[in-house]
């Protein structure tokens, strides 16, 4: 068995690790079977705030994998948990899709476009000048600016699409206020994921394909890391970073190759 798989619990990024768009990557069914048969606690983490855990579960179902929605944790859930811990029942003006808005509601936060405590931005396809203008007005009026994640781009159907970091930039620039980002590489999301699983960081492995989010988030959280090369990072690019993952693998398929 690969040394990385001896850990008791697993946090695993999604796009670039288990699938590319709507294509499942090699070795994933075997990896999932290993986790389930060994009784390993696991969470699939994503910085995307668009989809709810149920929608992510359904997406994997369409790809042939049965994974209950309790095994997914998104930056939307992390953002909602953070805001609820800061100010229970706070008012929020949200720019985002159903995954973000639903997570905010479920955490007991209320939608408020008049005098909210927070302006929260996530990925969305209904971005508009009017929403940017509204957000700027509210932030200048005292609302705190929160981003679900700092990603500038994400994978789309036709290549790269603007992500939360790009969408929130006009609000930051217009207000001279810097947003606080909850998703990876913020260790806060990692600690929330560990709490969600009920496991210790020493017993956990973080698997991801990005050095600047997945791997640094694991390192800064004290979690052992494994970089897979099926996503955005190449072996040559690893050398550009001043930190290194605990393990590097060609992909999940290479990790599970030694399993019985």
Descriptive terms for the model:
260 residues, alpha/beta, Rossmann fold, 2 domains, six-stranded parallel β-sheet, five-stranded parallel β-sheet, 15 strands
Written overview of the protein:
This protein is α/β, with parallel strands linked by helices. It has 2 domains: 3-47 and 184-256, Rossmann fold, CATH 3.40.50.1000; 87-181, 3-Layer(aba) Sandwich (Rossmann fold), CATH 3.40.50. It is 37% helix and 21% strand. The chain is built from 10 helices and 15 strands. The strands form 4 sheets. A 6-stranded parallel β-sheet has the order 5-4-1-13-14-15, sandwiched between helices. Strands 7-6-8-9-12 form a 5-stranded parallel β-sheet, with helices on both faces. Helix 3 crosses helix 7 (187-197). It is globular.
Summarize the structure.
This protein is α/β, with parallel strands linked by helices and 260 residues long.
Write the layout of secondary structure elements.
Blueprint: E1 9-13, E2 19-20, E3 23-24, H1 28-37, E4 42-46, H2 53-62, E5 72-74, H3 75-86, E6 91-95, H4 98-106, E7 110-111, E8 118-121, H5 129-140, E9 144-147, E10 153-156, E11 159-162, H6 164-175, E12 180-181, H7 187-197, E13 204-208, H8 211-220, E14 224-228, H9 235-238, E15 247-249, H10 252-256
Parallel strand pairs: 1-4, 1-13, 4-5, 6-7, 6-8, 8-9, 9-12, 13-14, 14-15
Antiparallel strand pairs: 2-3, 10-11
Helix pairs in contact: 3-4, 3-7, 5-6
